[in-house]
Specification:
alpha+beta, nine-stranded mixed beta sheet, two-stranded parallel ribbon, 18% strand, disordered C terminus, binds adenosine-5'-triphosphate, binds magnesium ion, cytoplasm, EC 6.1.1.7, protein biosynthesis, alanine-tRNA ligase activity, ligase
Length: 479
């Protein structure tokens, strides 16, 4: 079943169950605490927090998501992408667990001819929160899941809150057993690579007070109205229904991956190292296309930095794979647009602009990649030659400042040679550069009252810390 058909079936199923179909919001979150939308519920946050009255009791959507927190997993696990799509159904004070659980099960297990996904119920496992007997009972007694395939898990996996006072509650997740060739027996608690998490059902039932994220906050009581928020990974379901090994081999990502293989003269399946690189390229090019389409531009801060980092990482991987300097991003961008335009027609309409942004970034980086790599190799040799394993922060800073190497790229290159980087020194150098720029801008402003664009930019951003990645719980990696 094609990805587009999976999305269509999902929306149709919930529409038939009285849900309003809501189009995806932009990847750029309308929310100061987030860089990008990491989950389907984000556009509905004001409803869940009681800040706005929803115009409907039930909604369903296919939401575009970016999870920067998963970037390092991409290509290595079978199931993590940077950009992915989350299918969801939502209840705002309407139905609760007793309906959400059987609905999810029905859709997954109803035969394809009957409008479902036709998954063999024997392959499905579920988890519930430690003390959530209510959910466990529904799974066992209403749905009929054998007790040995219902597992209990703690706060880390099966408890949800928004990180602020308001709704919180247990969740319940559905996993698919890919079989003994993918790992050890024992359910999701034993092996999350063999048992792939497909769908998370969140039951918002309590009101939490002030406190930290890890449930060290008081529970103020039951919510006056209980809510449902669910998230099912479209790419994950596609990989299972298409019988392929991982999400990068599905109909959409697979097209980009195969194109990257062909362009670089690499055979997918030939070696683990090049396979990972091809998967990273497929994921990153698609992510970049979706980000640019939603208005993000490469830059040195926040969302722009994430885009720059994934584009530059793609360019380097493509060069390593091909062993040459040929620019491949333009063609791959075109393939990614072709693979995604069925669901997102705006990609074709905006193709010219998307190409322009990505081509420019490729050109800018291509000019410095070779000389930067030479500098990196000398630094690595020097480090090893002296019997050390840590590349200096000064080298990393020069790579960043002169050659446009995002620090993550330098870290990755160091890692490939069994080295690491003095990040503390690197950060200190970045900070002092910012301080100098800020002081210069201030002096300029005071001296001739000329508020240059540059000065305004610095002031506007507060020129504080550089937020490279921000994950969905608001944790920031400060570079
Ligand atoms: P995992 O434990 O596998 O990292 P998760 O628990 O972080 O997943 P949730 O936050 O529960 O994921 O998100 C809901 C659903 O979205 C998941 O069940 C999965 O199907 C999908 N999903 C989450 N992260 C990714 C990702 N990086 N790439 C593709 N799909 C994802
Ligand atoms: Mg995760
Ligand atoms: Mg999980
Ligand atoms: Mg989960």
């Amino acid at each position: 079943m094609e990805t587009a058909e999976i999305a269509r079936r999902f929306l149709t199923f919930f529409e038939q169950n009285d849900h309003t179909v809501v189009p995806s919001a932009s990847l750029v979150a309308d929310d100061p605490t987030l860089l990008f939308v990491p989950a389907g519920m984000v556009p509905f946050k004001p409803y869940f927090l009681g800040q706005q009255t929803p115009p409907f009791d039930r909604a369903t959507s296919v939401q575009k998501c970016i999870r920067t927190i998963d970037i390092e997993e991409v290509g290595k696990t079978s199931r993590h992408a940077t950009f992915f799509q989350m299918l969801g159904n939502f209840s705002f004070g309407d139905y609760f667990k007793d309906k959400a659980i059987p609905l999810a099960w029905d859709l997954l297990t109803t035969p394809v001819a009957g409008g479902g996904f036709g998954i063999d119920p024997e392959k499905l496992w579920v988890t519930v929160y430690l003390d959530d007997d209510e959910a466990a009972d529904i799974w066992r007694d209403v749905v009929g899941v054998p007790p040995e395939r219902i597992q209990r898990r703690g706060v880390e996996d099966n408890y949800w809150s928004m990180g602020v006072p308001g709704p919180c509650g247990p969740c319940s997740e559905i996993f698919y057993d890919r079989g003994p060739e993918h790992g050890v027996e024992g359910g999701p608690v034993a092996d999350e690579d063999r048992y792939v998490e497909v769908w998370n059902l969140v039951f918002m039932q309590y009101e939490r007070g002030e406190g930290g994220a890890k449930k060290d906050y008081p529970i103020l009581g039951d919510l006056p109205k209980q809510n449902i928020d669910t998230g099912l990974g479209l790419e994950r379901l596609a990989s299972l229904l298409q019988g392929v090994d991982n999400i990068y081999e599905t109909d959409t990502l697979g097209r980009i991956l195969q194109d990257a293989a062909q362009r670089t003269g690499t055979r997918y399946g030939a070696a683990e190292r090049s396979d990972v690189m091809l998967r990273v390229v497929a994921d990153h090019v698609r992510s970049a296309v979706m980000l640019v389409s939603d208005g993000v531009r490469p830059g040195n801060e926040k969302g722009g930095y994430v885009l720059r980092r994934i584009l530059r990482r793609s360019i380097r991987n493509l060069r390593l794979l091909s062993g040459g300097d040929t620019a491949h991003l333009h063609g791959l961008t075109e393939t990614a647009i072709g693979a995604m335009e069925g669901i997102y027609p705006e990609l074709r309409a905006g193709a010219e602009r998307i190409h322009e942004v990505i081509d420019t970034e490729e050109k800018n980086f291509s000019d410095t990649l070779r000389s930067g790599t030479a500098l990196f190799n000398r630094a690595a040799e020097r480090t090893k030659g002296s019997g050390a394993t840590r590349i200096s922060g000064a080298d990393a800073f020069q790579l960043h400042d002169t050659y446009g190497f995002p620090i993550d790229l330098t870290l990755e290159m160091a890692g490939e040679q069994g080295l690491d980087v003095d990040e503390t020194e690197f950060r200190a150098l970045m900070q002092s550069q910012r301080d100098t720029a800020k002081a210069d801008a201030k002096a300029k402003k005071l001296g001739n009252a000329d508020i240059s664009v540059y000065a305004r930019l610095l002031e506007g951003s507060g020129a504080t810390e550089f937020l490279g990645y921000t994950d969905h719980e608001g944790e920031a990696r400060v570079l």
